[in-house]
């Protein structure tokens, strides 16, 4: 199951308030500016800064390539 499009349209990073990318097949939202990953558990985004995972450079590059290859759009346009 994926997140509701209406919810995605308003989701923002709790730290920098910017848009996120929803990587549905891996169940998380990603902030490329801060290299933070927010997990989605049981279709609920866990948007607590303390629960976020900071990814390393290699994982960031993998995620950005995946986002580009799959044409993923940000949760909203700034």
UniProtKB/TrEMBL annotation:
<dbReference type="Pfam" id="PF03966">
    <property type="entry name" value="Trm112p"/>
</dbReference>
<dbReference type="InterPro" id="IPR005651">
    <property type="entry name" value="Trm112-like"/>
</dbReference>
<dbReference type="GO" id="GO:0005829">
    <property type="term" value="C:cytosol"/>
</dbReference>
<protein>
    <submittedName>
        <fullName>Unannotated protein</fullName>
    </submittedName>
</protein>
């Amino acid at each position: 199951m994926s997140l509701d499009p209406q919810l995605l349209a308003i989701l923002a990073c709790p730290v920098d308030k910017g848009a996120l990318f929803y990587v549905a097949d891996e169940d998380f939202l990603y902030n490329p500016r801060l290299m933070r990953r927010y997990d989605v558990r049981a279709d609920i985004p866990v948007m607590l800064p303390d629960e976020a995972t900071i990814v390393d450079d290699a994982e960031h590059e993998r995620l950005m390539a995946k986002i580009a290859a799959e044409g993923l759009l940000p949760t909203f346009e700034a």
